[in-house]
Amino acid sequence: MILAKQNGISSKLFRQRVNLGGWDYERASIEPVRNKSENIKIVAQMRRKYPKHIVELAKKNGVCYETFKYRVYAGWTLEDASEIKVRR
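Predicted structure:
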């Protein structure tokens, strides 16, 4: 706990990391506290339904996000939904 305080980690956060997060004492004591914007980015990545690189591939191949989602819903694989170009 002393090491945590020296690293700017509150006792409440330390207990949360150990009790709720399952972290070991050393990691809970030394890992830096993330700022709010970093937390938002991490949570957004965790909540992402489709991998970012797949969605970017679809965009690169001219497949809009709505078409991509519909294709996946219709049973297409992520790769096919993002790689097969839209017929016009």
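Summary: The chain has a mean pLDDT of 93.
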